[in-house]
Amino acid sequence: MKATRVEFVGVGDLVKELVRAQRRWERVERTGQAAGAEAGEVFELARAVVCGWWERKEFWEREAEWGPRLEQVVAATRWWRGHPAGWGVEQWRLLARDVVAFPEVVAVAEALVDPRMQKLTAGNSPGALVRAGGGGARLAGALGRRLRREWLVELEADSHAGPLA
């Protein structure tokens, strides 16, 4: 398959996975809006959770999917020399992170607007987003199963200050 550029980055063979995630995001957006949630708020909260994981050494020690994805993005982008004016290394790192982690951001956003997930954490409280309510371990366990990262519950048990908490 020919490498595909997403604006300034090559995604190589990840294109199918990213397209699937984009389609899922469109469904998440509609579900959230129907429940009264602001799509931007849902996305930003999900992105904050996933970016928090990205920054944690403990996450990377167990993570198996992001490393190969990152290698694909770097390899696919290397051939393309164009870049936005004024961009430095940090902007490229952030862009690569966002591309690599996008499927997980969508999966977390999907969980935030899922009424079943809300019940895990908020009991019978109304609202479209998962709310704090003492169900953090249940939420982390359910997210771990959705993301095929069952160890996530252990990682989140050690972190009481992150966005997921």
Task: Please name the defining characteristics of this protein.
165 residues; mainly alpha; 8 helices; 2 strands
Topology:
Layout: E1 5-6, E2 9-10, H1 15-34, H2 39-54, H3 57-62, H4 66-78, H5 89-112, H6 115-122, H7 136-146, H8 152-157
Antiparallel strand pairs: 1-2
Give a structural overview.
The chain has helices at 15-34, 39-54, 57-62, 66-78, 89-112, 115-122, 136-146, 152-157; strands at residues 5-6, 9-10. It is mainly alpha-helical.
Percentage of β-strand residues: under 5%
Q: What is the domain tally?
A: 1
Which radius of gyration do the C-alpha atoms yield?
A: 17 Å
Tally of helical runs? 8
Oligomeric state of shown chains = single chain
Q: For the residues shown, what is the average pLDDT?
A: 81
DSSP, total strands = 2
In angstroms, what separates the terminal alpha carbons?
Answer: 40 Å
What is the H/E string?
A: EEHHHHHHHH
Overall geometry comes to globular
* Main sheet characteristics: 2 strands, antiparallel
Summarize the model shown.
The chain is mainly α and 165 residues long. Helices cover 63% and strands 2% of the residues. The longest helix has 24 residues, at 89-112.
